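Q: I'm writing up a methods section and want to include an example of the input and output format. Could you take the sequence below and give the corresponding predicted structure tokens, formatted cleanly so I can copy it straight into the document?
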Amino acid sequence: MEKFLIPDVVVQDRQHIQKPYPTEPVYLCVEIRSPEDKVGSLLAKCEEYHEWGVETAWVIDPETRHAWEYRRGQVPVEVPPDGFLTAPGISVSLAELFSVL
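A: Here is the clean output for your methods example:
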């Protein structure tokens, strides 16, 4: 049985778009927490993305307005409310992200 990893959001190079789901590691995976999700299980899913070859994963909790950045080989880091989620070449302000909710 083959396992498929399906993130809520992916960022990938336009030249390597994979449809309907990625079959090769992508640039960035984002998990958006639902009320029934546990942060620990989402971070475990991010670890699976890292094992697959994804360098950076984010977990975003729109209800509590918290977010974590998780890079392969490092521990997850909670981003402060006035901070930024980052990946090489990408920076997203948490204040701006949560202002549209």
